Amino acid sequence: MTNVKAIEEAVKALPPRNLAAFRRGFAEFDFAAWDARIEADADAGLLDELVQEAATDFARGGHRVS
After folding, report:
1. Domain ranges, ordered by start, for the chain
2. pLDDT interval class at 5 (50, 70, 90)
3. CB within 8 A of 33, min separation 6: which ones?
């Protein structure tokens, strides 16, 4: 836990310009991690039921916006 605290303190100490750059970089890192997780879940078939449910809903017209 000390590493997390050290990172938190280092981030708090960043000047605004560096903080903005860190936030952009971390957001990109976070999005890439999320994408990798979704891809792994899809490859493992963990999303198949949701995909089928969405396809069924779409076929029934559930995609219409009222």
Report:
1. 15-66
2. very high
3. none
Place of tokens 């089928």: 52
Place of tokens 């860190």: 22
Amino acid identity, position 55: A
Beta-carbon contacts of residue 38 (< 8 Å; ≥ 6 apart):
47
* Assessment of whether the complete model's pTM goes beyond 0.70: no
Helices (H) and strands (E) in the chain, counts: 3, 0
Q: Are 19 and 11 a contacting pair, CB within 8 Å?
A: yes
pLDDT tens, position by position, 35-61? 999 999 999 999 999 999 999 998 998
CB atoms within 10 A of CB 14: 13
